[in-house]
Records
---
Amino acid sequence: MEFKFFSLFGQFLLMLKGMFTKPENFRMYWKEFMNQCVDIGIGSLGIVVIISIFMGGVTTLQTAYQLVSNFVPKSTIAQVVRDTIVLEFAPTLTCIVLAGVIGSKIASELGNMRVSEQIDAIEIMGINTKGYLLFPKIAASMLMIPALVIIAGFLGIWGGKTAGVMSGIISNDEYWRGLRQEFKPYNVFFALTKSYAFAFIISTIPSFYGYNVNGGALEIGRASTRSVVVTCILILVADYGLSALLLANG
Amino acid sequence: MSFQHLLPGNLYYMIELVNIKKSFGDREILKDVTATMESGKVNLIIGASGSGKTVMMKCMVGLMEVDAGHIQYDKQNFTNLDVAGRKELRKQIGMLFQSSALFDSMTVEQNVMFPLDMFSMGTLREKKKRVLECLDRVNLKDAAKKLPAEISGGMKKRVGIARAIVLNPKYLFCDEPNSGLDPQTSLVIDQLIKELTHENNMTTVINTHDMNTVMESGDHIVYMFQGQKQWEGNNKDIIFSKDQKLNDFIFASEFLREAKEMRQMDMFKDKDWREQFKKQAEAGSDEKKAAE
Ligand SMILES: Nc1ncnc2c1ncn2[C@@H]1O[C@H](COP(=O)(O)OP(=O)(O)OP(=O)(O)O)[C@@H](O)[C@H]1O
Ligand SMILES: [Mg+2]
């Protein structure tokens, strides 16, 4: 069991190392990178918009429900909502969902290419398949996922305000005042650090499972499921690790 | 043994396999195979399902690593080449896969264009012209704008061939080019590969268990049996071969055995062939005597 883990981890590192060779043709790599940016970024924008608006709304309602006291000013609700969304919900929740959306897409796309010998066909042309197929996906994820997290943060806070105002919990002015109370830019830095770490996990783990599929169509499904599960677990572990590391003395 | 490289004016792009071994776990798939793929000819690797043909071909192009032995491309040791060297050599290799392996998000034209885009610095117009040339060669000009999902299996194979030859390779590999096709379409594909080989003086290696292919285009045939080279020769030798395993494999049905006898009679009518055959038989008996 432990040996299997180390051998997998070794293969994983070798895969990452194998990506870095001189591109055969820079323009083709760039084109592939752009395609992936569109696929990954625009492709998952819709789901990110929906979940972040609802996530913000629910956060406001539940925070208000827990803070029922006349001694606590209403604006505190907004402050709590802001910090919850920036610190945890926008990066982690969004990335868990993206693990499903992007992770399964990457794993099944590569798995299908492997099973139908397309990867072999590219390899035989004298192209570094790890460089051409994996690197653009990982680079595009590293660019687009943090961008999606930033969008999720803004939309979440906006959704929180809308829900709060609509249900009469908090007024527009109070919400805005709350948002500006004790704002720590460090929290944004923390959120971005997390989203880069998660983006790396979301793109590399499914790449690894998809690229190394062997067998038939059934294996593609299996690899895709397994990669999503492993990605989610690793995201949560990394979330805990980064919180302990970066927030412990904050 | 081939003396072709001694003939004047003949380029020779030979592939030699020297004592190749390959196992998966403790299952030995290739047990010490030594063979030569001759230049300018259609070389066939034949054998029953599971005899290691695909593994052998994948070893030859480096999609699998051999456990022992080495592979020579035209006096260049492929097995010992580093990554960059292999990449360089692979530009001279084209391969048609068993499943065609077309890129399913690209049209037929884009599929054939892909190697050109990656490696050649020509203008778009030059590249387009070359793509059309290749598609024309495989009779698929009309399907240029279609997606792989919209064309038939035989057409996919032809697109695969067009993509394999677009960079003018010296070596062409085809893994079961006519599996899953009707006899007529298979013949078209065989004919195409044969013509391309002779036109461009390529060294072609085909994996097959199609008897039509064996008889029609077998310039040089390697018969694999349980991971070993059992027999080597051409499609005329095969008619007269005494090798029991080969005969059981090739002439498996009553119909084919009869066809073989008819072909033997036909060939005996040809005087040159008769002489040659006599010589061969004598040489064979000499060898036996020497062994004794
Ligand atoms: N990646 C692999 N891992 C383990 N065993 C393999 C692998 N590839 C092939 N084999 C085994 O090697 C043996 C030879 O397989 P190969 O695909 O070369 O047969 P083949 O001669 O091409 O057969 P067919 O005519 O059916 O294509 C088979 O028994 C197969 O189980
Ligand atoms: Mg095979």
---
Amino acid sequence: MAYSDKVIDHYENPRNVGKLDADANNVGTGMVGAPACGDVMRLQIKVDDNGVIEDAKFKTYGCGSAIASSSLVTEMVKGKTLDEAAAIKNMEIVEELALPPVKIHCSVLAEDAIAAAIADLREKRGEAKAESAA
Amino acid sequence: MSSLNIPVYLDYSATTPVDERVAKAMSDCLTLQGNFGNPASRSHVFGWKAEDAVTEARKNVATLIGANPKEIVWTSGATESDNLAIKGAAHFNVKKGKHVITMKTEHKAVLDTCRQLEREGFEVTYLDPEENGLLDINKLASAIREDTTLVSVMHVNNEIGVIQDVAAIGALTRSKGIVFHVDAAQSPGKVALDVDAMNIDLLSLCAHKAYGPKGIGALYVRRKPRIRIEAQIHGGGHERGMRSGTLATHQIVGMGEAFRLAHEEMEEENKRVEALRDRLYDGLKDMEEVYVNGDLEQRIPGNLNISFNFVEGESLMMSLKDIAVSSGSACTSDSLEPSYVLRALGRNDELAHSSLRFTLGRFTTEEEVDFTIAEVRKAVEKLRDLSPLWDMFKDGVDLDTVQWAAH
Ligand SMILES: Cc1ncc(COP(=O)(O)O)c(C=O)c1O
């Protein structure tokens, strides 16, 4: 299977690998996927006082496209509000990385990871309702 | 020849390069100046010469498996041989019964042929291997029924390299009057075969896993006691009616020469390849959380199938771009399931997803093995640094207790 240059670039130089303090009140953690399915993504976001995402970190177990999708997502969410981040659609990832059809599930997983991280953060801040209303 | 050839080829169980000596023998059978005739032409010297070459090749193939040359039927490869043997024997014996026994770890050429028989109304039992990949003969014995006509068990497994005790199976099937087919595509030059001592009735072979060309194979069909099969390809009645079609002299000569060399050089080659395989394993086994898949003793010398826990196989191969290996990870195939062979051993999905198959062979060098060790260690380390599962493992989280949001 041939990979696109963008997938290879993210795979070889993954952006924002790491871990944020999951207990901090301004950090949201989303972990999606399952080892049995061959991919697990952990995405963490940290917001500033204005509710804007100032930092994002990831770790991913999965194929090259899964790693590239999560790496790309950490770049995409930075500087966005939670609502803006929540509006990111998996097809944007597919297009940016030129993922083939068999790898679309990697982008879906990345979209799910954003949603999970945002939900975690909102829950921590007692905003669970706001999320379901959004 | 430089002793480090990049990319390094460690996928000898997928196919092998053709040995130069084999290529030479083949190219002598193509042009006007060469031995190009139709072996079935009885009326002139071109045909006779071609027939002589085919006879010589038939003898070389028969010798490697302890058979009579008259028991060799040329086919296009092991897939066709498996089809001919299984459909041919099941169909021929349909009056006696419609039950076939095989294993879950067989090659698709056997499994898919059995599925076809099921569609035709046959019943097939797929036996589970033990955790080491080997068949428990007692499980086979208790699966045999009145109406069982055929047992098909492979000799050497293509993924994990384990060697089934076909002699024990053959003793059992012979005593019950059941036809015994063996897929031995991976055996030539690696494990000795003796169809008489092993009581094998039908045996599938191909050339391209033993330094011969692709597109040629053979089926051994026992004459005493005579095993009868129904032809699957009809035509001019070649190969005693069992497989019609003009014989491909150059391919057959290639397979004959490859098998002659395999017979001659097997012992020495196995020693050398085994030392290299052990060197590879020694270079990797001190890493944390690595598991060899399949029995380490009952195994061909050139195979190392190993799982690097918490690292996914496809991404690992992506890191190893200068090394050609294969993976049991689902992401490398069209299906979403990881290797059915590893699953059948009872390996969990994680370990199945994390596996790499290294297969070494005639042209593998120490330098290539050392290069591979260094590259694999580097890649596994890099990917574990990226892996949330590795983090959790290091934090002492038992991954089996985590509620995963399966997708
Ligand atoms: C065990 C086994 N059986 C059958 C085959 C199919 O052989 P061929 O490619 O000659 O049809 C292979 C090779 O892929 C194999 O490893």
